[in-house]
Design goal:
single chain, mainly alpha, 13 helices
């Protein structure tokens, strides 16, 4: 099973990405949570172009990426988990949880430190919130995130299969919790016990700073509650809340070339 995951990593990740993207796109079309305020063709063309650019960039800069790092780490016997007497499946599950906690902490860090915020704020300059927002990150942030992820993989000695599962989960839940889908209030409340829902994460994309600096989780919803960064609902409600950043209301920031230069902008928020 492990070798199957490793040998078919690219196809598995691409397959899950396309399946979830198509499913969320159809759901958004049939049952949208909010009316979009900007041109969907312009946003989608630019957000998807950026996603493809980032995918190619990561493959060029990190040909082996996090999975290759996990395999190399295993060969060398590196990692804290290798000192613990536990089955590989248990070590893999622990690795997935630790990696998710690391992504949460990284997300908080990227909001709190001005240099990192310059990169991350491009994700927040989207003026609408839908499935394509989930992959709308600055290329430099993507590269930096990969370096951090590879470091965590080496530090804990995560099994390669768990890294693949985590990355599939991360991509899938990012598209899910950024999607513009309508969920019944009761269903949303139950799902929030296990996974970050769109209503939970949408609060994080509010124009209000106190709401932007909340609900940092991507996969699991527990970290925000544990560390006191959880906010249940936006003050204005999901229909009336404003998406984006206060100083980036010009639709030009939705275009590929302008997204790339967001870190150079003098506007902080």
């Amino acid at each position: 099973m492990n070798m199957f995951l490793i040998d078919n990593e690219v196809f598995l990740r691409l397959g899950f990405f396309l399946a979830i993207f198509v499913a969320m796109s159809i759901w958004e079309r049939l049952a949208p949570r909010r009316a979009l305020t900007q041109s969907k063709p312009i946003r989608w063309a630019n957000n998807i172009s950026l996603t493809l650019f980032n995918a190619l960039l990561v493959r060029l800069v990190f040909p082996v990426a996090a999975v290759g790092t996990a395999l190399y780490s295993a060969e060398k016997g590196w990692g804290l988990l290798r000192f613990l007497d536990m089955p590989e499946w248990a070590g893999g599950m622990v690795s997935i949880i630790i990696l998710d906690l690391a992504i949460y902490l990284q997300h908080v860090l990227f909001h709190k430190f001005p240099l990192f915020w310059r990169l991350h704020r491009m994700h927040h300059t989207d003026l609408d919130f839908d499935v394509t927002t989930g992959a709308r990150f600055h290329p430099l942030e993507i590269l930096l995130s990969m370096v951090i992820k590879m470091g965590i993989v080496v530090m804990i000695g995560a099994p390669a299969w768990s890294v693949i599962v985590f990355e599939v989960l991360l991509n899938g839940t990012s598209m899910f919790n950024h999607s513009n889908i309508s969920l019944a209030l009761k269903a949303d409340g139950l799902l929030r016990l296990l996974v970050v829902t769109p209503d939970m994460h949408r609060v994080h994309h509010s124009v209000l700073v106190r709401e932007t600096d909340s609900n940092f989780g991507f996969n699991f919803p527990w970290w925000d509650r544990l560390f006191g960064t959880y906010r249940e609902q936006p003050k204005a409600g999901h229909q009336a809340m404003t998406i984006g950043l206060a100083n980036y209301r010009d639709p030009k920031w939705l275009k590929f070339q302008w997204m790339l230069v967001v870190p150079l902008s003098r506007n902080y928020r």
